[in-house]
Amino acid sequence: MRITDEMPDTWVRAVADAIEVYDHTVTDCHESAIVIDLTPTTLRALDADPGEQLVIGWTERAGIDWGLGHHGWVPDPQPLDATTPEQIAVNVHMLLTTGRPA
């Protein structure tokens, strides 16, 4: 499933800023998705393959989804169960450190 729905730029930037508070580097941020390149530590936490990225986005389903993929293509997005930029950032931080959302 492709991350395709669009969100307002100011809201997406607020989410990216909240994620970066936890010292995670957002490598791409636009109206369709937020992309985080994985470090060796986060690759292990997520059991990801080298080259995969964490993609946070908005699919045809309601709400925020996350998944591992390449260039915005996420084969099996999962719900992130968060609505505010701060909640999203906490769940992303948990994903990157434990492999599971909060």
Structural class: alpha+beta
Task: Kindly report the spatial arrangement of strands forming the biggest sheet.
Answer: 1-2-3-4-5
Share in β-strands: 15-25%
- In angstroms, what separates the terminal alpha carbons? 23 Å
| Shape designation | globular
Q: Which range best describes the helical content: under 10%, 10-25%, 25-40%, 40-55%, 55-70% or over 70%?
A: 25-40%
Biggest sheet, open or closed, and with what strands and sense?
Answer: 5 strands, antiparallel
Order of helices and strands: HEEHEEEH
Radius of gyration: 12 Å
Q: How many beta strands in the DSSP annotation? A: 5
Overall average pLDDT: 88
Structure annotation, total helices: 3
Low-confidence stretches: none
Walk me through what this model shows:
This protein is α+β, with helices and mostly antiparallel strands. The protein has 3 helices and 5 strands; from the N terminus they run H-E-E-H-E-E-E-H. It has helices at 9-20, 40-46, 85-98, and strands at residues 26-29, 33-37, 53-57, 65-69, 78-79. Strands 1-2-3-4-5 form a 5-stranded antiparallel beta sheet, covered by helices on one side. A hairpin with a 7-residue loop joins strand 3 and strand 4 (65-69).
